[in-house]
């Protein structure tokens, strides 16, 4: 068990007492040691850890020291040491009793049941958040989860994203390049969460009761929040935010193509009698543009799921679906325009609202039914 500490002198000894009083070996079959990673706590936490390791918990507690460089760096060094020492399962928890020691055997039982990674979760059935947990903490945690999913693209199947209460088999950590991520704070936790669910490992979420810290202050800072956004942004190229940004970019350029083709054709065919036909050609040119670049650029996961080359049949099917989607969005725009105009809305605003509604429909249908992973379709 890795316990990172910084100014946790009031919590450390009671935590170790609680952990070593658990019947872990009898109940789960695992020999259980604790690695305290202290980063030069000015309150004497590191010195206390040394005394406890040499005294009442001799042979059960390992103490690792370092300079204060944030939770992420502390965890990386602690992982390195635990792997070097040959431990088969590496657990982590906070030192402030926000994670209940009584829940530790649940994580090991999940490992014994075949999980490669067991995560203590507040958000699965049976998990609890304290009734007196400050509203600001709840909002911050929820916002962090939303950022991780929308900006980072972390699989929504994983409910708990920001916890430090986990059990991981050594071979999993050996295959994750955690040493490469530049994270000092809780951005490191979201990096690990994403790495767990993007690998081929079995991940189990174990319901736990989360608690308000026993004593001391939260270590989170503004720089940790900024870092969290930075780490999340770099996680997955197919995150909903990045995909939506590409969708908008392609759509705007498609509008330019539409207008450009219409302008070009009018130069050669100035007869007003065929302007509708020219407009239809320009619309079709923008549809082909959008389809091509949505396939190659916006929805990259669609291309990757077909290995090197997308089959012609899949392309034709997707193109037909996109043509129908375009017809649907044009209908949405026209319907919104007629309804809102009749309600007295200024005609340009009515058209703009119709375009907005059509965009939402277009993106939803495109991302949900047209450019989807082949594996997802088969499932």
Automatic annotation (TrEMBL):
Keyword tRNA-binding on entry: no
Residues covered by the GtrA/DPMS transmembrane domain: 246-371
Pfam family, one: Glycos_transf_2
Family, as annotated: Belongs to the glycosyltransferase 2 family.
Taxonomic lineage of the native organism: Bacteria, Bacillati, Actinomycetota, Actinomycetes, Micrococcales
Gene3D superfamilies registered for this protein in UniProt: Spore Coat Polysaccharide Biosynthesis Protein SpsA, Chain A (3.90.550.10)
Top-level taxon in the UniProt lineage: Bacteria
Compartment annotation: Membrane
Organism: Microcella daejeonensis
EC class name: transferase
Enzyme Commission no: 2.4.-.-
Protein name as catalogued: Glycosyltransferase
Record-annotated membrane-spanning stretches: 244-268, 274-293, 314-340, 346-365
GO molecular function, one term: dolichyl-phosphate beta-D-mannosyltransferase activity
Xref: InterPro entries: DPM1-like (IPR039528), Glyco_trans_2-like (IPR001173), GtrA_DPMS_TM (IPR007267), Nucleotide-diphossugar_trans (IPR029044)
GO cellular component annotations of the record: membrane
Topology term for the membrane: Multi-pass membrane protein
Keyword line: Glycosyltransferase, Membrane, Transferase, Transmembrane, Transmembrane helix
Domain Glycosyltransferase 2-like positions: 2-175
GO BP, sorted A to Z: glycolipid biosynthetic process; polysaccharide biosynthetic process
């Amino acid at each position: 068990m890795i316990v990172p500490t910084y100014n946790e002198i009031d919590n450390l000894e009671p935590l170790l007492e609680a952990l070593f009083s658990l019947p872990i070996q009898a109940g789960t079959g695992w020999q259980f040691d604790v690695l305290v990673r202290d980063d030069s706590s000015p309150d004497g936490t590191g010195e206390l850890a040394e005394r406890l390791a040499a005294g009442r918990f001799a042979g059960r507690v390992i103490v690792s020291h370092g300079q204060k460089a944030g939770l992420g760096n502390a965890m990386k060094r602690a992982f390195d040491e635990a792997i070097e020492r040959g431990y088969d399962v590496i657990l982590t928890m906070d030192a402030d009793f926000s994670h209940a020691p009584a829940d530790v055997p649940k994580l090991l039982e999940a490992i014994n049941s075949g999980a490669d990674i067991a995560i203590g979760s507040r958000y699965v059935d049976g998990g609890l958040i304290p009734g007196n947990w400050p509203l600001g903490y709840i909002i911050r945690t929820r916002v962090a989860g939303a950022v991780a999913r929308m900006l980072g693209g972390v699989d929504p199947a994983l409910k708990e994203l920001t916890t430090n209460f986990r059990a991981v088999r050594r071979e999993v950590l050996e295959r994750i390049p955690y040493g490469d991520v530049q994270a000092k704070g809780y951005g490191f936790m979201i990096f690990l969460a994403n790495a767990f669910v993007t690998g081929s490992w079995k991940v189990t979420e174990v319901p736990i009761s989360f608690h308000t810290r026993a004593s001391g202050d939260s270590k989170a800072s503004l720089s940790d929040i900024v870092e969290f956004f930075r780490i999340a942004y770099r996680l997955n190229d197919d995150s909903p935010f990045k995909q939506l940004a590409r969708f908008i970019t392609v759509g705007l350029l498609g509008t330019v193509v539409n207008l450009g083709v219409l302008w070009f054709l009018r130069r050669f065919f100035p007869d007003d009698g065929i302007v509708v036909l020219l407009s239809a050609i320009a619309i079709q040119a923008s549809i082909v543009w959008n389809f091509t670049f949505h396939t190659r650029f916006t929805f990259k996961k669609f291309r990757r799921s077909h290995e090197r080359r997308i089959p012609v049949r899949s392309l034709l099917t997707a193109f037909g679906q996109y043509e129908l989607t375009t017809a649907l969005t044009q209908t949405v725009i026209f319907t919104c325009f007629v309804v809102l105009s009749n309600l007295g809305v200024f005609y340009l605003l009515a058209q703009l609202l119709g375009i907005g509604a059509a965009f939402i429909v277009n993106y939803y249908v495109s991302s949900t039914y047209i450019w989807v992973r082949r594996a997802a379709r088969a499932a």
